[in-house]
Every structure is written in C-alpha cells, then in structure tokens.
Amino acid sequence: MLHTSAARNLLTVVGSVSTDASEEIHYLLTTGEDIVYTAKRHSGRSWILMGRAQYACTCGKMYSQYRNLYRHQKQECGKEPAFRCVHCDYKCFRRNVMFMHYKSRHHIFCKETLKLLVSGKNPNET
C-alpha cells in the first residue's frame, strides 16, 4: 500500500504530467498498487509500478531486484557517500553516478579531468 506522504507527493505532481500519466497514476492510487518515484536522466518524472516481488531494506528503501537490495545493504545503507562533487554539494555512492553528475550538471566531458575529479583531486593543481 502507498504510504500517506508518498500519496500526497504523488498528488502534487499529477497536474504537471501528461493526461495519460495522470490516468495511470489515478489507476495506481485507486487500486492500491505500490508505486515508486524514479528520476529519469533526460525525460523528467517517471512512475514505476513495482510488482509483487519487492525487496525492502530495514531503512525503508525498496528495490525491484534482489541484487540492488544486496548492493545497497553492503555498500550504502547507514554509510556516508564515498564520492563528493568538488563544484557543489552533490554526494553519491558510486563512481559511475559521479561521472554522470559531472557530465550532466557541470558539462565536464574530458576523460582525464573526470578521472581526477572523481578521485577527489583538483585538476587545476596537477
């Protein structure tokens, strides 16, 4: 069942999505199916219907695949993110996600510069 706070958040974005998406969201809310919000990189908001085979961590995060839950529990749950952006306050757990952050938010595409930034070094000091 959808948590109350998630339902409120869902209702606030219904007006900003297409009619088809609004109808799908309405269906999901009225049928009591569980839904999870995900951010798509370039295409805006997306809602994913989670099937009956859900995997939940004790911290409250849910995953559709066991391997993602396993990774979360081993590498992320209760830990500080390993990677921090040198240009803003962004933090993440995985190196590839930090690469995508630098490319999409700071428009840095040089492979050597990206490697230095992700390793925590300032490319201007080398």
From TrEMBL:
Q: Which Gene3D superfamilies match?
A: Classic Zinc Finger
**UniProt entry keywords in alphabetical sequence:** Metal-binding, Zinc, Zinc-finger
- Entry-linked InterPro entries: Znf_C2H2_type (IPR013087)
Is Zinc set as a keyword in this record?
A: yes
Q: Which PROSITE patterns match?
A: ZINC_FINGER_C2H2_2 (PS50157)
GO molecular function ontology, one term from the record: zinc ion binding
Q: Where does the C2H2-type domain lie?
A: 55-81
What name has this protein been given in UniProt? C2H2-type domain-containing protein
